[in-house]
Amino acid sequence: MDASLEKIADPTLAEMGKNLKEAMKMLEDSQRRTEEENGKKLMSGDIPGPLQGSGQDMVSILQLVQNLMHGDEDEEPQSTRIQNIGEQGHIALLGHSLGAYISTLDKEKLRKLTTRILSDTTLWLCRIFRYENGCAYFHEEEREGLAKICRLAIHSRYEDFVVDGFNVLYNKKPVIYLSAAARPGLGQYLCNQLGLPFPCLCRVPCNTMFGSQHQMDVAFLEKLIKEDIERGKLPLLLVANAGTAAVGHTDKIGRLKELCEQYGIWLHVEGVNLATLALGYVSSSVLAATKCDSMTLTPGTWLGLPAVPAATLYKHDDPALTLVAGLTSNKPADKLRALPLWLSLQYLGLDGIVERIKHACQLRLQESLKKVNHIKILVEDELSSPVVVFRFFQELPGSDPVLKAVPGPNMAPSAVGRERHSCDALNRWLGEQLKQLVPASGLTVMDLETEGSCVRFSPLTTAAALGTRAEDVDQLVACVQSKLPVLTCTLQLREEFKQEVTGMAGLLYVDDPNWPGIGVVRYEHASDDKSSLKLDPEGEKIHAGLLKKLNELESDLTFKMGPEYKSMKSCIYIGMASEDIDVSELVETIAVTAREIEENSRLLENMTEVVRKGIQEAQVQLQKANEERLLEEGVLRQIPVVGSVLNWFSPVQASQKGRSFNLTAGSLESTEHTYVYKVQGTGVTPPQTPSGTRTKQRLPGQKPFKRSLRGSDALSETSSVSHTEDLEKMEHLSAGPEQDAPEANSPERPPGAPTPQEAEQAGALQNGAQRPEDDRPQVEEPESLR
Q1: Please, what is the Cα angle at 462 between 452 and 268, to 5 degrees?
Q2: Which residues form a coiled coil (predicted)?
Q3: Which of 126, 132, 268, 375 has the fewest CB atoms within 10 Å, i.e. the most exposed one?
Q4: Distance (Å, rounded) from C-alpha 608 to C-alpha 47?
Q5: Which among 229, 236, 205, 203 is positioned nearest to 218, based on CA atoms?
Q6: What's 677-699 look like in SS3?
């Protein structure tokens, strides 16, 4: 490219192209270097400062831009378009810089150049997308073209609108018809831009009995038009879809065109399927859009071109009205909007444009997903669109479909809504997982009114920008299949988890429809106010300790702590399950661990008061012991010199007395037992640590909460029973010789070794247990005292 830049006679254009190349290379290299450094941030751009008086060079400014673009990403950076722009993207970006340079030319050259750019781009778009004898309006906001078209329709139908203004509209209110499947916010945007009240919008429902449920109901539309005419209103404009924003369905544009011609309504068409007009074969429903009054194209999205304007093609013979409506302009700056698209279309050429759109249409995911179990394709009767919308689907034995959108006759609406919200979370989780695993697929998670949360694959809007290939589609199908066991297993364990938590004392099941895991549980401690929704500090402390204990178990489950749904109380969220989980063991472990944490925390809270009282009591008893010692020894022994002489002539045999504080019992005990028997006894046996009612024997290397696969229940039960019997036999055999055989003739005990009874008594001595009076050892006096 450097050699081609040297051939340019204009040095400014050559320098501009060189600077753009260097700037894009610097940004891309800097981003790559940032990823290699594992997201290290440059703090120079994080803190805003004053404008430097001496100025900065280009490298410093671009470094600041790069830092602002990627320096604040705490998580892993997702794939961005700057990585897949390519040279055609650089051409589109060059158009913006070139437009600023062209605006500095003299008026005559500027007029000729902008007229040429506008006419060439309009002609190319009309020929590529089969819209003959059309005009073009280029705009940055996709909806702006439709707003201008509405202004043109108002000026065309209301001849006195320029003079009388709103009075004309008040006498005969205009009506704009939108499909119920139109993109959200479109009607409100039009009313805000046109200054019309919301009653001027008419929402046309989609088919309910015949045809696609995402296509406009033509018969119902005709009924609405007749009713509006009878009420004295003026049907003004109809917005049809050639590929709805949600599922990519195309309305019956041919019948809608006939209806609009009958009642004098302006027909405007928009949608992603208009891109297929550039192909050799086009479906009849999309081909009918070439006869409409106007259409909005988004070539930047279809071709993967950044910063390229959208284009609205229209047919109208009165240039004065188009000028009043804002569709045409005499300002060169408005005409220069088409410059990036003008450059990009020339760079790609007709073959390159057709090839990109054809490649996106050939990325068919529908055929592969039909072979995958538990995946329901919601849009399967639309053959002209590559858009695929799918959803996880499973039927449990003996029940209605879990993800059924419409309530059945034997199911309460509340239960259906609860199951739908719960399974919507699973589909959102599936969509997010697939987006991370296959970022080149361009998947989006969306919510449909009747079906709920779904995953959408729309290659016409993402394939060119992300570089999606056929291998990415195959990888996407493989990832869907790999996630199905997790989804099915989690869905099967949810009801069992709810029942186990409901039957466990101290645990409360939290119904959170937005959590995709097994479930949510909250531990109710002794001082928990069940009627309060405020933050509970004690409960938060218990749940934090519980979360730490559960994560230390190193199981395959993921645990998370967060606020309860619809309240501020802390809960434990259990994640997805990849294998069959012993839910009863899981719930029991949560309850026992939480109860243990609560008792330990309560013991620590009471320890300060208990220790303080114990110290006070010990001080009183020690003071009393000192007073008794004074009475026993006499006053003379307390005098320093006299007491030493007296003690030398007549020593006092004083007993060593002290006090020990038992933390478990919270009481003072005498130390006489310690000095006599040379061991420290506990006095009171500490309470047993709370544990489960049953213990599970795990195989070596088996992680917690795992149980045998359901497909091999019979084998696992037989093996477990036989294994238990073998253990009992081994225990019986090992205990038999010690109990039945005589001690003297026992072959297993070497000579001189203690008998089991002696070993048991020795163990009792080590644990501080008191022996009978006859077995108490005699304390011998040292030889020096004898």
Answers
A1: 75
A2: none
A3: 132
A4: 47
A5: 205
A6: HCCCCCCCCCCCCCCCCCCCCCC
SS3 string of 291-350?
HCCEEEECHHHHHCCCCCCEEEEECCCCHHHHHHHCCCCCCHHHHHHHHHHHHHHHHHHH
Provide the residue type at 217 as one letter: D
- Best CA proximity match to 280, nearest among 464, 386, 459, 130: 130
Burial class of 193 by CB neighbour count within 10 A (0 to 12, 13 to 18, 19+) = middle
Instruction: Give ∠ CA 683-687-688 in degrees, rounded to 5.
Output: 130
| Averaged pLDDT for residues 316-326 | 92
Give the mean pLDDT of 158-171. 86
| Residue 212: partners with Cβ closer than 8 Å, 6 or more residues away | 206, 249, 379, 381, 382
- 515: phi then psi, degrees, rounded to nearest 5: -95, 125
What is the spatial distance between Cα 83 and Cα 465, in angstroms, rounded to a whole number? 9
For 718, other C-beta atoms within 10 Å of its C-beta total 11
Cβ atoms within 10 Å, residue 393: 18
Measured CA distances, 680 to 217, 669, 675 (Å): 90, 11, 9
Across 61-65, 69-73, 467-471, 604-608, which has the greatest mean pLDDT?
Answer: 467-471
- Written as one string, the DSSP assignment of 623-678 is HHHHHHHHHHH-SGGGSHHHHHHHHHHS---PPP--EEEETTTTEEEESHHHHHHS
Q: Which residue has the tokens 């490219």?
A: 1
563: tokens are 């606020």
Say if residue 768's pLDDT is above 50: no
| 144-179 burial code (b ≥16 CB/10 A, e <16) | bbbbbbbbbbbbbbbeebeeeeeebbeeebbbbbbb
Quick: pLDDT tens for 678-717. 666 555 444 444 444 444 566 666 667 776 544 444 334 4
Tokens at 263, concatenated = 């009642």
Contact 669, 660 (CB under 8 A): yes
pTM confidence score: 0.72
Give, as one character, the DSSP assignment of residue 47: S
Nearest to 470 by CA among 364, 354, 355, 351: 364
Q: Give the type of residue at 49.
A: G
pLDDT in tens, 613-671: 777 777 787 788 777 777 776 666 677 766 777 777 677 666 556 667 666 565 667 77
Q: What is the spatial distance between Cα 44 and Cα 562, in angstroms, rounded to a whole number? A: 35
Q: How far apart are CA 92 and CA 301, in angstroms?
A: 13
Tokens standing for 156? 């065309």
Three-state SS string across 76-94, please? Answer: CCCCCHHHCCHHHHHHHHH
At 771, give phi and psi (nearest 5°).
-100, 165
CA atoms within 13 A on the CB side of 704: 17
DSSP conformation letters of 127-184: HHTT-TT-EEEEESSTTHHHHHHHHHHHHHH-TTHHHHTHHHHHHS-EEEEEETTSPT
Worst-scoring range by mean pLDDT, 515-524, 541-550, 661-670? 661-670
Distance of CA 771 to the CA centre of its chain: 64
Q: Output the average pLDDT for the chain.
A: 77
